[in-house]
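COURSE: Structural Biology Practicum
ASSIGNMENT: Worksheet 4, Part C
STUDENT ID: 0417
INSTRUCTIONS: Below are two proteins. For each, the amino acid sequence is given first, followed by its structure token string. Answer the questions at the end about the second protein only.

PROTEIN I
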Amino acid sequence: MTKLRKYFFGYLFVRIAKLLAIITLLVGLGWMASKYVQTSIAADSASYRPSELLRQQLERLGETFISTRELVGEFAGPGSGAKEVVAPRFARVIHSDGDFERLTEELGVAERGQQELKQKIVASFEDLTEKIEQKLRAHAASLEPPPAPAASGVTPAATPSPALTPSTVPEAEDAETLFSKNLSRMDVLSRSADLERTKQLLKLLEGMAENPDNRRILTESAAQIDALSTLLPKIRPEPTPVSQFNQSPPSSQPVPSATPRPPPLNAEKMADQLGRMRATVRATVLSSWSLDEVLGQASETAAVERGGCRVASLTVKGIWLGGLGQIGLALVGALFIAFLILVFADLTQTLLDTATNTGIVADSTKVPSKNS
């Protein structure tokens, strides 16, 4: 009993060692659970949030693509296949790298569809003018000897567009067109003037053509220009006061008595002129579409949001790696401390047993000396 009091805390430590080890593990697990919750909250706060602006732009892009496809199909006709052009399909929620990968693919579908629709708009006109250009170049190549420099090609003078006065400023009508609403009225007039000059060149070539088939092709090309002109936004000029017609003096230029005969046609130069004319028509008709504007905005916003999503993903990964690393260290530490408690309990038990045995042996050696 005296020895029990002497080694009270040693015996107490040995008896509650397992309980201490369990308590240590429970404290470690509780800390780890708390750390996991904190890490989850921090990761959730740093995670990427789907962009409402991007969602709205993608919805607008899908609607604009469908309406553009309908307009092109009505213009090009049922046999053009415009209405069979595949439209992009965007997910309603985009919040991960995988979603942005699929979005990039769908934006590529929209871009390819856009180019396909544009090609269907000018396909007929370009086919006709390319035929004439090829015939002109073939004719120029067959000439022996080549034409003299004096027989220069006829470059038709640009048809002067009427000057806009404050009383004749056009006003765009509220109608659905292929073109962006940001296209100014002056741009519309400039494009109309470019198409009109192209039409005048085709008419000039038609008057010079001797082959009936060539005249037919040129007539159809001019008709295509008229059709392409209808795609431009409609403008409505305001009525001009009558008094303005008398503000400028009559022209003093002499009126030609007869229409001069055009000089000989230079086939090579006219072929080059047709090539430039075709490029002008493409730039006039195929630029500044509403689909171009919406697709550009959606692509730009998607690129920005994808960068933000990547940054957020890396941040979330870093938070989880740091949190899980601390949780792992805490688990190892709790297990190690519990193991040390049990080890020290065994050592303490050994020391107590040794002390007890030593005391018993000492008592037994003292007994014979008392009897003697």
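PROTEIN II
(use this one for the questions)
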Amino acid sequence: MRLIPREEKFFDLFEELINKIEEGGELFLDMVQHYEYTEPKIAKLKELEHEADVITHRTYEKMHKTFLTPIDREDIYDLVNKMDSILDMIEASAARMSLYKVKEPAREIIEQAKILNKAIKKLKIIVHALRDMKNAKMILDACVEINTLENEGDIVLRMTMAHLFECEKDPIELIKWKEIFERIEEAIDVCEDVSNIVEGIVLKHG
């Protein structure tokens, strides 16, 4: 029996953060599917990114004020830091598409955004399940699925880059598209990083 109860508020913060990330991912997918890079949508994505930052810093503050955390402090820090980075990458991708005056995104970007959203939705499942270690098997299975999605993202990026360097003759356009493609792939990679952190937490405490 614990003499001092664990502080469960951390799980509320994790869930609040992943919900913001999901909202940002869905907005980004909507933007690329409908070729809409208007100021209001870019501003909304920036707002979500800022809200995620606030949640992240609230978690840090809570961690430093809490005597007994539900999971190790370094795991809390790594988890929210990486989760926050997903939305940073999404916002950066959209901002560059607006800055570079992309009129119609390449089909590959839509494919990347779909993979990214699938990975985020899997992350939402495991983050919401994390407060109960009875969900360990389900969490670990979802982590494997996220790894598979990251591999799919790698394949799409390799094919996209090969096509880009073969067909794009304007070096400036090539640089623009290369950066955008790599930013989105980085967001998918960070989803896998988050799942690896969650997997480690489950194996340690499950």
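ANSWER KEY EXCERPT:
Q1: The two ends are 17 Å apart (CA to CA).
Q2: The domain at 9-205 is CATH 1.20.58.220 (Methane Monooxygenase Hydroxylase; Chain G, domain 1).
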